[in-house]
Amino acid sequence: MERWLSKSRVLLGLCALMLMAAFNRRDPMAYGVFLFLAVICTLGYLLPWLSLRGMQLRWLGQAAPQVTEGQAYPLHLVLERRARWPAFLVEIEAEWVWASQRLVMRHTVALVRRGRSVALEQLCTFPCRGVYRLQSVRLASGFPLGLLRAQLQMPTPELAVQVLPQPSPFLWPLPWTVTANPQGERSTRHLGPSMELGLLRVYQDGEPLGRVSWRASARAGQLVIQHFQQTGSLRLHVLVAVPDAQACGQPDSDGEQTIRLAAGIVAAAQAHHVQLRLHLPPHAEALTDPAAALLALAAAPAVSDSLPVVVHQALPLLQAGASVAVVLPASLPPPQVLQALQGLRARGGPVLVCLAQGAAGAATPQVLAPALAQAGYLTHTEVA
């Protein structure tokens, strides 16, 4: 019953009732009430449409703006009025689209005088990373009675906002290891051949006899091993399992928390001057620039079962001594994860498995971390 008793139907019913009363009773008071209701109905239906006539919307922002998720961003829109009459209570709706998400932001302008323009410095807040494109801009008005909600579709500028992920604070829990690099800045000792001798030490059981310095052993009266100097650098390979279509764009999901955790690891590597190698589907090559890595994380699309793919891509590029961080959602099934990590385990070297747990899965019992710990992996869990 309530859905039938809207404002417009009630006023139209009263107008019809007073018109019939005026004809039947021929009362001037009934005619006056009818005219009063008719004027109100006319204004209620006409003014919203007139308020949107002569409107123009211009955008004065950058070509490709960037903002971090959760931070305020001004729209830089200017609403101009070219009609001869003012407009009241104009509502601007901006619809942004990314992946499967649609975000509608609304802003209301109380008064736009004739021949004037109003700068809409509304601070938009994007709750999740991504590349949001402006799909449409609509103007709407229901002033003064809300009997009619007039809408006007405005020309949409080509606008895309790159929303970077908010990096999660991260501290690397393992000692940094050195990878052989001729252009590196760190010198380490190793048993292999080199042009520069590092040190001589006493031979220990089980070591290869090919590294014994026989001249030094003859002088010392016991077997002596020779070490050489090696130039190397700190290198970190970050393997990221991107979220699937169900979790992509959901701020509280484990998949989006994985992207934030990966951004935190990138920031930690940059702070410690560690050479970064970010492996991220669908990129076939590793990303080495931290700024480019953040942009790639922001625009990472949804990929189903991405962990085996990224491990397969990274295995040929892993060098001896390089540190490896595998970032994945905590909601993945343990058998799938253990099978995908077998190649990294056979390679040797330090491997840290970082599990990202979003706020949406906080109440779900976690079984992946105990399974990885039982298999001998060092894990780190990050909760949103």
Automatic annotation (TrEMBL):
It comes from the Bacteria. The chain crosses the membrane at residues 31-50. The keyword Membrane applies. Keywords: Membrane, Transmembrane, Transmembrane helix. This is Uncharacterized protein. It comes from Comamonas aquatica DA1877.
